[in-house]
Design goal:
With 275 residues, the protein is α/β, with parallel strands linked by helices. It has eight helices and nine strands. 37% of the residues lie in helices and 19% in strands.
């Protein structure tokens, strides 16, 4: 597996193509990176990953893709739920084992260390449990009043760290990279070689097996801040650092989806997401 580039090394690299290096020193010093990482963690992945509707998957995991519609509560998530659902009758949640399909790259199979996949699925399962636990009892076996969440990670693809590093070492190459997402029809702030993470999620009555709802999303990483707002520096620094780690964007997507699921459950059940 590729090794991540340390923040002090990255600061020197960026400083080299930032002229006097003042921008690199200000944004990419070790303290600045720590602060940016903390800000990204608070955003639960929302800043550094973005939905790419062109890449939404149809793996066969869900029952009916034709009824999925873009949700008004998510960045680009498509969902469906049973019109007769009374979410208030569910106060327990169970997360089933997560299945994974890897995305071929240039027609070739993606080779991944199995231990990496286990770490990723464990991370996502833990993120869902942590997000939902404040408002619902987490159980490990079906019982009355339990929603079971079944998850498939689709088109999973790691960041190509070597190509990202190569792009960084080209003088002013970041200028071309920063605009490449939109130029190729993708989301602003995205760039080639970053990871891709698709999810298809099913919500079932744990005892009857009835399908209560379904959702899907596919995100790509943002190496560059897409908008120049108050959080742009944090988004840029966090996304930039993520491009030097194979699975950083996948974990950010898991954090975001876990947060969205918990917030949506709370809204449908009429409770606070933190209770």
């Amino acid at each position: 597996m590729n090794r991540p580039v340390h923040s002090d090394s990255l600061a020197r690299i960026v400083g080299a193509w930032c002229g006097a290096g003042l921008l690199g020193a200000a944004l990419l010093s070790a303290p600045a990176m720590a602060e940016s990482g903390a800000a990204a963690a608070k955003s639960n992945g929302a800043a550094v990953t973005v939905t790419d509707p062109r890449l939404l998957t149809r793996s066969g995991f869900l029952t009916d893709y034709g009824r999925l519609k873009k949700a008004d509560w998510g960045e680009g998530v498509e969902c469906w739920r049973d019109a007769g659902l009374d979410a208030r009758q569910y106060d327990k949640v169970m997360v089933s084992r997560i299945v994974v399909s890897l995305k071929p790259v240039d027609g070739k199979e993606t080779l991944v260390d199995p231990s990496d996949l286990k770490k990723l699925t464990d991370y996502f399962q833990d993120a869902l449990v942590k997000a939902l636990k404040p408002q619902m009892k987490v159980v490990t076996a079906p019982e009355a009043g339990t929603v079971m969440i079944a998850v498939a990670l689709t088109s999973l693809k790691p960041t190509d760290v070597k190509r990202s590093v190569a792009g960084t070492l080209i003088p002013y190459g970041f200028v071309a990279e920063a605009g490449s997402g939109v130029a190729k029809g993708g989301p602003a702030g995205s760039t080639p070689y970053l990871g891709e993470t698709g999810v298809e999620m099913q919500f079932l009555d744990a005892t009857s097996g009835a399908v209560l709802g379904e959702c899907r999303d596919t995100t790509v990483g943002r190496k560059y801040a897409a908008e120049m707002d108050a959080n742009a520096v944090s988004t840029w620094a966090s996304g930039y650092m993520g491009s030097f780690q194979s699975w950083s964007y996948a974990k950010s997507a898991f954090d975001k989806w876990s947060m969205q699921v918990a917030q949506r459950f709370a809204a449908l059940r009429g409770v606070a997401s933190g209770k």
